[in-house]
Write a structure and sequence with these properties.
Elements (H helix, E strand, L loop, with lengths): L2 E6 L6 E6 L18 E6 L1 H17 L3 E6 L9 H13 L7 E6 L1 H13 L5 E6 L2 H7 L4 E6 L2 E8 L4 E5 L8 H18 L1 H9 L1 H5 L3 H21 L14 H10 L7 H19 L4 H13 L12 H8 L5 E2 L2 E2 L1 E6 L2 E5 L4 H10 L2
Bound molecules: nicotinamide-adenine-dinucleotide (NAD) and zinc ion.
The site of nicotinamide-adenine-dinucleotide has 28 residues, from helix 1, helix 3, helix 4 and strand 7.
Length: 363
């Protein structure tokens, strides 16, 4: 089993991202920061429990930890205070202590809830991320930006709270539905555009292998994506500077998600359309050529992702929704626009009209 490691460099809160096939089997041996016999809650969904959760508890118990499974619902609509509350109840019932550990075994929804609950239960206990979706493996599990949704808006309640370890088992993607794999590819393309021309080329040349889940190609993409995110977080933990480039495609994407009522398009699917819009806006200004736009669209189409806004959604409504998003700073909408493969700018000087024209142009 070959494995790769990257450090998220945050001084005494630094941690490792360990990536490899079947790496989940090494979990117990990597918890050397925990006291002997500590309580370990493996937090997962009922479905993932059957595939990976019970197995994890068995291994942890054999290693001498007091391990148990906490079940919470996951997926869209469940990243809520109600789900967090279910988890607090189980932590209290099992008498989890300050020195106990929570393990988030699931996609971004589980990762965010577990991170948030860990940050607040007894003023903070340690947690480990074991992401099981592609989006969570390349993005959500890294960086400690953990939050839950409010009925009026996504991710409105949250904190920055870093995990102790991120264990990325690429073999877990074998069971992931195709639609979710595609959504993860959109997030990888985002890294390629902001920071990695070689990743852009891999996406252009190896899409067939990626979609058929070729272990080597997929692992290399995950390793590169993790390295980019780790580097950005090391430079800017809370997103006030360079980390904001991660929002490439997301200013449009979040608004598209909101206007289409969360759920019709997944986060990654909306970000894919958002990247097409952002590139088109830059092209209209003359900041980037149409060749870039065509290449980017080609990758998304090869991945099976939509590249235009749904026809029944009003472009003006999408732009209005942008004004309510976390991408607004001092009343101005922040856009990340590409200026080349591997180069973006953070800009506040694009007008609503330009954004609306870009959305319309994708149709
Ligand atoms: N904290 C961050 O920085 C960050 C970044 C990106 C996204 N997010 C959040 O992540 C959430 C989306 O996460 P997601 O896209 O991972 O989806 P998800 O967590 O909602 O999971 C989607 C579904 O896939 C299932 N699933 C997960 N892993 C599986 C596997 N290996 N095999 C089969 N089924 C599996 C889950 O049970 C669930 O039903 C959103 O709430 C988003 O806000 C957070
Ligand atoms: Zn995203």
């Amino acid at each position: 089993m070959s494995e790769r490691e990257t450090t998220v460099p945050l001084g005494d809160r630094s941690y490792q991202l360990v990536i490899g096939r079947d790496i989940r089997r090494e979990l117990a041996g990597r918890l050397d920061f925990l006291g002997d016999g500590a309580k370990v809650a493996v937090v997962t969904s009922p479905e993932l429990r059957r595939v990976y959760g019970d197995e994890a508890v068995e291994r942890l118990s054999k290693a001498g930890f007091q391990a148990w499974v906490a079940e919470i619902p996951d997926g869209p609509g469940h990243k809520t205070l109600a789900t967090a509350s279910l988890l607090y109840d189980q932590f209290v019932e099992r008498r989890m202590e300050r020195g106990s550990l929570a393990i988030a075994l699931g996609g971004g929804a589980i990762g965010d809830v577990v991170g948030f609950v860990s940050a607040t239960y007894m003023r903070g206990i340690s947690y480990v991320q074991m992401p099981t979706t592609l989006i969570a493996q390349v993005d959500a599990s890294i960086g400690g930006m953990v939050s839950i949704d409010h009925s009026k808006g996504k991710n409105l309640i949250g904190v920055f709270y870093q995990p102790k370890l991120v264990l990325i088992d690429v073999a877990m993607l074998d069971s992931l539905p195709d639609r979710q794999l595609r959504a993860g590819i959109a997030e990888i393309l985002r890294y390629a555009v902001i920071a990695a021309p070689h990743l852009f080329e891999t996406l252009e040349i190896r899409m067939e292998a990626i979609l058929s889940r070729d272990p080597q190609v997929l692992t290399a993409l995950i390793v590169d994506s993790c390295a980019i995110k780790a580097h950005l977080i090391g430079q800017d933990e809370t997103g006030r500077g360079v980390r904001a480039t991660l929002y490439y495609g997301h200013t449009f994407g979040h608004a598209i998600e909101a206007v289409t009522g969360y759920g019709r398009l997944s986060h990654g699917e909306a970000a894919a359309i958002g990247m097409v819009c952002a590139a088109e806006m830059a092209r209209e200004r003359g900041m980037i050529g149409s060749e870039f736009c065509d290449r980017q669209r080609g990758i998304l189409q090869a991945a099976g992702l939509a590249t235009s806004c749904p026809g029944d959604v009003d472009a003006g409504e999408i732009v209005d929704a942008m004004a309510l998003d976390e991408n607004v700073v001092g009343g101005r909408i922040r856009f990340i626009v590409p200026t080349g493969v591997g180069a973006t700018e953070i800009r506040y000087d694009f007008s609503s009209d330009e954004a609306e024209r870009a959305i319309t142009a994708t149709r």
